[in-house]
Structures are given as C-alpha cells and as structure tokens.
Amino acid sequence: MVEERSSPAANWPEYMQNFDLNLLASLDALLGEKNVTRAAKKMHVTQSTMSGIPRRLRDQFDDELLIRNGRRYELSPFAQSLAISVRQTILQIDSTISAKPLFDPKKDRRRFRIMASDYSTMVYLSAVFRRIEKRAPYLSYDVVPINSPLDHVRSGTVDLCVTGNPFTQGDAIADQLLRADTLFSEVYCCIVDADHPLRGTVTLDQLFDFPHVVAQFAGVTMQTSQLKIGTGRNRSNPTINVSTFNVIPALIQGTRSVGILPSRIMEVAAERPRLRKLDVAFEMPSFTEHLIWHSRFAYDPAFCWLRSVMLEMT
C-alpha cells in the first residue's frame, strides 16, 4: 500500500489555502502607492495586468481597500490597518529569501542604505568607511539625508539610520520592531575667528554680546536654543541660521560672530587654523548619536558584520 502524501499547502489554515500569495507584493504596492498606474510601475508590470488585481483583492478581503476621493484614491480604514503588517511581511520575506548563511567581507558584495546627517557623515561615517575599505572592499553605500527616519527604517527604504535626535531615539526604543544602539556622545562648543576680541574664560552674558551662527533644523528644537534662557535677556541678538553644521566654520572666519556647533566638527574643519575654540564658564549642551535599525536584520550576517564595525568606532 502506497502512503498518500499531502502537499505542504494542505496543512495550511483554510484562509491561507484560499489566498494567492503572489498577490501579496501587489497588495503592498497598491497600499503604498494608492494608485494603480504607480503600483504597476513599481511592480514592473503593465497597467492592464495590474488593473485586475484590485478586484481580486477586494474579493479576498471583502473590502474596497481603495476609496475614491475626488481625483485620487485613499485607503479604506481596513486597508490602513493592513498597510504596516503587509509591508513588514514583504520585508521579512525578502530578508529570508536573500539570506546567506555566512558573510565573507573579503569577497561578498552588498549595498547598504544609510540615513545620516551631514554631521554624522563627516565626523563618524567617514571614519567607519575608512576602516571598512580594506576589510570589505566590495561593500557599497547609499547615504541619504535625514527625513522621517523611523518611517524609512520601518518601510525598508533605508537599512539603518544614524541620528542624534532624542525624540527619534525615544520613539525607536518604544517600537518593538526597531533597535537602537548608542554610538557616542557629543558636546557643543563655541568657536570664533582667531582675531576675535573674546579672550579668556567667557561668561554667558559675554557670549550674547556678539552675533551668533547656529544650525536650525525643521521640526527640531535645538538644545543650543536653551543657552539664551540662562542670560535672562528678552531681546534677541543677531543670528545667522543655517541648515547644516558643516558651513558654520566658514561663516565665522573673518567675522565678530560666535559659532555654536558640535566639537567634532572643529576637528575636521578645513578652516580650523584660522579659528579657535572658546573656554566658557558654563555647561554646554550635549547630545548622543544612536544607530537605529530594524529587528529583521538581527540574523543577517552581512548586516551584523557592518553593525559590529560601526559599534567599534564608538
């Protein structure tokens, strides 16, 4: 008597047997793009091929999923509840099927997507890349500017993020799917032109007798803004607000302004010979840089290798 073997799918729950798993990627594209044409482009299929998929998905879930609102579509409440879990499932599947049992840094190729500020790239990632260059010569990187970092880490558009924003760090720690490693702490400093009249140990009141050059980022309350509170002054002194720390040394050179920036910037600034750091009689603000990543990479050999090198540099 020959034993009859059932297919693996026969052991799945009934709702799994009735669902075409090939639709999962299309569902992810539709939920992300909210548009059949853009979803088709993302899936590299024709619009006519993609146009029949929403009907199949509506039948599967017994929900409209996409609801027309004027000239565009929005996700139904049920579709909104699916979006995150579907995206995470796709990413986990991708991680599983692309996984390798081992990583050989001398031979293997891999491209990592890293979100980081100009500051983090200049003072930290540059050192990381120098160390990795000889150990893993075939690794490549896409470094992109900070923009909604946790959303991009969750969605898989970036592999990891280096950030000093305490609110981002707090939100990452509170998210069960995300991980946050402490990299290093940084202290702000005050810099001036070599011929600036401020000398000796400078008080807070003396500091605010001069114009300032400071970095200000959209949606972020800078810790350096707390310095003025200690002076008790109501009037504001002249300032130049910039969107990156890296240009502050150049804007300070040859002026009477005081620049406030992370100390490590001064160590790599090209203008350093013409600038000097002030000794101050008060405590300067500080921040801590963290490495934010997704738990799906916890057992990815290549990612774990890169992470270990990055943690060596702290």
Give the arrangement of secondary structure elements.
Elements: H1 14-17, H2 23-33, H3 36-43, H4 47-51, H5 53-61, E1 66-69, E2 72-75, H6 77-97, E3 110-116, H7 118-135, E4 139-144, H8 149-155, E5 160-163, H9 166-174, E6 178-193, E7 201-202, H10 204-207, E8 212-215, E9 239-242, H11 248-252, E10 258-262, H12 263-268, E11 275-277, E12 279-280, E13 286-294, H13 301-312
Parallel strand pairs: 3-4, 3-5, 7-12, 8-9, 8-10
Antiparallel strand pairs: 1-2, 5-13, 6-10, 6-11, 6-13
General description of the model:
- The chain has 314 residues and is α/β, with parallel strands linked by helices.
- The chain has 3 domains: 90 residues, Winged helix-like DNA-binding domain superfamily/Winged helix DNA-binding domain (Arc Repressor Mutant, subunit A, Orthogonal Bundle); 99 residues, Periplasmic binding protein-like II (D-Maltodextrin-Binding Protein, domain 2, 3-Layer(aba) Sandwich); 100 residues, Periplasmic binding protein-like II (D-Maltodextrin-Binding Protein, domain 2).
- It is 38% helix and 22% strand.
- The chain has 13 helices and 13 strands.
- Strands 3, 4, 5, 6, 8, 9, 10, 11 and 13 form a 9-stranded mixed sheet that branches.
- A hairpin with a 2-residue loop joins strand 1 and strand 2.
- Helix 2 packs across helix 3 and helix 2 crosses helix 6.
- The protein is elongated and about 75 Å long.
- It starts with 13 loop residues before the first helix and ends with a helix.
- The mean pLDDT is 86.
